[in-house]
Write a structure and sequence with these properties.
The chain is an alpha+beta fold. It has helices spanning 9-14, 19-23, 174-182, 194-198, 307-344, 349-352, 360-372, and strands spanning 31-37, 46-51, 54-61, 64-69, 90-92, 98-101, 107-110, 126-127, 129-132, 135-140, 161-170, 202-203, 206-209, 215-218, 226-229, 235-238, 240-243, 246-250, 252-253, 261-265, 269-273, 281-290, 293-303. The two termini are 17 Å apart. Bound molecules: FE2/S2 (inorganic) cluster and fe (ii) ion.
């Protein structure tokens, strides 16, 4: 059955330099995405998780995490309403007892009709899972999955990097999230943040590009693909804010230099290095939920030499960074994304926006994502 296109084809064809990006309202298929944190998925437990217009049921058996589509093939109900299990490694639907193997997705029995000819013929969709850095990553697609390292920013999987994080649902499309994070002049919204004053950060009001190449595109096939923002080297920071010749505002001329290396990577993950402190790096994902929401998965990483340093980082994360940086500072971003969504929820917004020179980085990101994504999620699954 043909499905109506998610995005107006007339708009896609007019965005000729990044059509795939404009089309990807529900994100890109065949990539690894973070879902829940490992500690959220207990042994023997289940979590229903919406992603890319689809819905997963995550389960943990003997320590291993599994992901299947949270929808029974028989009459479409979500298993997660009342997940049942009578043999380890299987999932039984609460409605008529169809029982599936979590590893293969195969229908291995039907409690209400033991001899059914459907047994061994039907299956539910299952998705590859890798747990890394305390996060359950799921490969959303049908192709052969590449290494996880191809879908996360450089450094994230380094052995000595300890990672802590939080996640929440935000009311904007995932692309609005990516572009808010990578937008170099959006620093303007953070001018009153308590983080800036409290940590004595050097934070200008904006940047004026001094040359045409304020970005670097990374497109090698054997690693992650992304764009580095080089505005730190190819721009003049604006510390004095003027309107009609009169100085009206000042940026924060603090001593702590941070965020001089910002990059964005497929399938939609930002790295800010260092941030929010010279010893930390922020990695944050904007994972599509549906057309109007994304999961904002915020993590901080610090290099540690031993378990004691890791424990110290974990305590510092809980007592300081979780509230001051991930909530305090980034709440400004969430507010901005939700305000921006009112415009970008219309397909025509991609044609009606009027960008300026510092947005060139964003254009490079759109082009790269359009060119190197492994598929476009063309429709929401039925629920
Ligand atoms: S809907 Fe699941 S067994 Fe019938
Ligand atoms: Fe921001």
């Amino acid at each position: 059955m043909p499905h109506p296109p998610l995005v107006d084809p007339a708009v896609v064809s007019r965005c000729a330099i990044y059509p795939g990006y404009v089309e990807a309202k529900l994100g890109f298929r065949n990539h690894w995405y973070p879902t829940v944190f490992s500690h959220e998925l207990a042994e023997g437990g289940y979590v229903s998780h919406p992603i890319l217009g689809d819905r997963l049921l995550l389960a943990r058996v003997d320590g291993r995490a599994y992901a299947v589509r949270d929808r029974c093939v028989h009459r479409g109900v979500p298993f997660s309403r009342k997940p049942e299990c009578y043999r380890k490694g299987t999932l039984t639907c609460w409605y008529h007892g169809f029982t599936f193997d979590l590893e293969s997705g195969m229908l291995v029995d039907i409690i209400t009709d033991p001899g059914s000819r459907q047994i061994g013929r039907l299956r539910i969709a299952r998705f590859p899972v890798i747990e890394a850095k305390g996060i359950v990553f799921v490969f959303l697609g049908d192709a052969e999955p590449p290494p996880l390292a191809h879908d996360v920013p450089p450094m994230f999987l380094d052995d000595d990097l300890a990672v802590r994080g939080v996640r929440q649902s935000v009311g904007s499309n995932w692309r609005v999230g990516c572009e808010n994070g990578f937008d170099s002049t959006h620093v303007f919204i953070h001018k009153d943040s308590v983080l800036v004053e409290g940590n004595d950060l050097a934070l200008p009001l904006g940047f004026r590009p001094t040359g045409p190449r304020a970005f670097e595109v990374v497109e090698a096939a054997d690693g992650p693909r992304g764009v580095y923002d080089l505005l730190g080297e190819h721009s003049e920071p604006i510390f004095e804010g003027k309107v009609l010749g009169e100085t009206v505002l000042h940026g924060h001329l603090g001593q702590t230099r941070v965020a001089y290396n910002i990059s964005i990577w497929l399938p939609g993950v930002l790295r800010v290095h260092p941030w929010p402190d010279p010893s930390l790096t922020q990695f944050e994902w904007y994972v599509p939920i549906d057309a109007d929401r994304h999961f904002y998965v915020q993590t901080l990483g610090r290099r540690v030499a031993n378990a004691e340093e890791e424990a110290r980082f974990a305590a510092e994360f809980d007592s300081k960074w979780r509230t001051l940086a991930l909530a305090g500072f980034n709440d400004d971003d969430i507010w901005a994304r939700e305000a921006q969504q009112e415009f970008y929820r219309h397909d025509e917004a991609w044609l009606e926006e009027r960008l300026f020179e510092p947005d060139n980085n964003i254009i490079q990101w759109r082009k790269l994502a359009s060119r190197y994504n492994r598929g476009i999620q063309q429709r929401a699954h039925l629920f």
